[in-house]
Amino acid sequence: MTNIILSGVNGRMGRAISEKANESSTCRIVAGYDINNFCETPYPVFTDISKCDVEADVIVDFSHPSAFGAVLEFAKKRELPLIVATTGLSPEQKEELFAAKSQIPVFYSANMSLGVNLLINLCKKTASVLGDKFDIEIVEKHHRTKLDAPSGTALSIADEISTALENTPEYVYDRHSVRRERGKNEIGIHSVRGGSIVGEHEVIFAGSDEIISLSHSATSREVFASGALAAAEFMKGKPAGLYSMNDLIGEMK
Ligand SMILES: NC(=O)c1ccc[n+]([C@@H]2O[C@H](COP(=O)([O-])OP(=O)(O)OC[C@H]3O[C@@H](n4cnc5c(N)ncnc54)[C@H](O)[C@@H]3O)[C@@H](O)[C@H]2O)c1
Fold first, then answer.
1. Is 51 assigned a catalytic role?
2. pTM of the predicted structure, to 2 decimals
3. Domain region containing 212
4. What is the CATH number of the domain that holds 153?
5. Residue 39 has pLDDT above 80, yes or no
């Protein structure tokens, strides 16, 4: 049994993970952390994570960048594996997270869906074949209440594609304020926000006479919840280090 402390427990993802864990025979939520504590739960929820004294195997974070410092501090103090899925972390926060790998096991993924991680691998492969001859644009769509834009996933896709290109591309988020032709060495990243869209990512490779488009749609939060629980089980008992979805997928093969 993997015992999980869930940060952001009362949010949309927190509730989806809690429901999924209820159906699981291999993992369970033993405590929650959230600044808003209004839900009835079968486990204690702390509004100050430093007050949490519940024994656990891992901590999973789907909250907000403002919770990051306290969650990281807690994981280090308790020497717990930390799984961070919160997006919109600043470059400094990411650096701090990755530096913690010398002290605790750290798992970071801007997208816990196995399908998206396959999409990322396919995009990398496509970019390595088509090289700098095709124009690459990423379009992501999410629900109207998503706070960060572009999505962490869109940025991860762009970062992975960049590693397959000869020249480091410039990310262009806004074509509205500059009147100029598209540069060769760009990745355009565009955000759509509306309704209850769970998460869609389309990567367009536009050539002179052909277009290749790779896309992924999440139709429910369950895909992220399943991925988060799989990551929690994967991280239980791991030695200090940095882990990703690729490590998890590698173990599943
Ligand atoms: N990696 C993935 O696969 C994936 C998938 C979906 C969402 N996300 C990310 O997970 C995060 C949460 O998403 P959501 O849709 O559940 O959001 P949400 O707004 O519904 O929930 C966030 C929860 O965190 C709590 N919170 C906010 N600030 C806090 C703080 N300082 N301390 C403690 N708790 C705090 C809120 O009260 C809320 O209950 C977002 O960053 C989102 O982008 C990641």
1. no
2. 0.86
3. 114-218
4. 3.30.360.10
5. no
